[in-house]
Design goal:
With 127 residues, this protein is mainly beta. The protein has no helices and eleven strands. The strands form two sheets. Strands 2, 4, 5, 6, 9, 10 and 11 form a seven-stranded mixed β-sheet that branches. Strands 1-3-8-7 form a four-stranded antiparallel β-sheet, with no helix packed on it. It is globular, with a radius of gyration of 13 Å. The N and C termini lie far apart (40 Å). 35% of the residues are buried.
């Protein structure tokens, strides 16, 4: 079955960096657009970044543009999120997700476009 397992979240000081990973299994990882979302306490789930199946196109939420980078390694079935210049407002549980449709030709920013989700990893940024 499809499994997505995030890792890498921890407590970090403002201005620091973290790299999140999402290990995928149970499907052909190289065929799917993938995404990262986050959810802070009391807030709705927020789009962070998305990458097409072949890594050829990426998009980012406005609040992370220029600071976060999404990438995927199809040989390792792993999705990454490099987060730099972290701010207290980045504190949240971060989720990776798999698009509903294989070889979808575009990135996707709506949660409804994703079918499978990981359980999340907590990122806490101290100010």
């Amino acid at each position: 079955q499809v499994q997505l397992r995030e890792s890498g979240g921890r407590l970090v000081q403002a201005g620091g960096s973290l790299r999140l990973s999402c290990a995928a299994s149970g499907f052909t990882f190289s065929s799917y657009t993938m995404g990262w979302f986050r959810q802070a306490p009391g807030k709705e789930r927020e789009f962070v970044a998305s990458i097409t199946w072949n890594g050829g196109s990426t998009i980012y939420g406005d609040s992370v543009k220029g600071r976060f980078t999404i990438s995927k390694d199809n040989t390792k079935n792993t999705l990454y999120l490099q987060m730099n210049s972290l701010e207290h407002e980045d504190t949240a549980v971060y989720y990776c997700a798999r698009h509903r449709i294989s070889t979808a030709m575009s990135t996707a920013s709506s949660p409804s476009q994703y079918l499978y989700w990981g359980r999340g990893t907590q990122v806490t940024v101290s100010s």
